[in-house]
């Protein structure tokens, strides 16, 4: 699923907010089946993208990286 989403965990550092937002958008597009939602669904779609990006940021902030 979501073959277009690239791996964002990498040795040189955490992903940028833009990278997380782009990945969240791809994920929500994939699971919703909408490339661009209707006006009636735009708020729900945008909210989901924001929540996925925020959850992803929290995850990256909490990951323990072994060196």
Question: Would you write up a description of this structure?
Answer:
The protein is mainly alpha-helical. Helices cover about 55% and strands about 0% of the residues.
What's this model, at a glance?
The chain is mainly alpha-helical. The protein is built from 2 helices and no strands.
User: How far from one another are the termini?
Assistant: 30 Å
Please report the total strand number as a whole number. 0
Any idea what the radius of gyration is?
13 Å
Rounded average pLDDT = 90
* Fraction of residues in helix: 55-70%
Secondary-structure blueprint:
Layout: H1 17-32, H2 42-62
Helix pairs in contact: 1-2
Protein traits:
elongated, mainly alpha, single chain, 67 residues, 2 helices, 55% helix
């Amino acid at each position: 699923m979501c073959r277009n989403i690239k791996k964002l965990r990498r040795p040189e550092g955490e992903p940028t907010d833009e990278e997380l937002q782009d990945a969240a958008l791809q994920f929500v597009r994939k699971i919703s089946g909408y490339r661009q939602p209707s006006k009636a669904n735009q708020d729900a779609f945008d909210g989901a993208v924001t929540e996925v990006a925020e959850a992803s940021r929290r995850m990256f902030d909490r990951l323990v990286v072994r060196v």
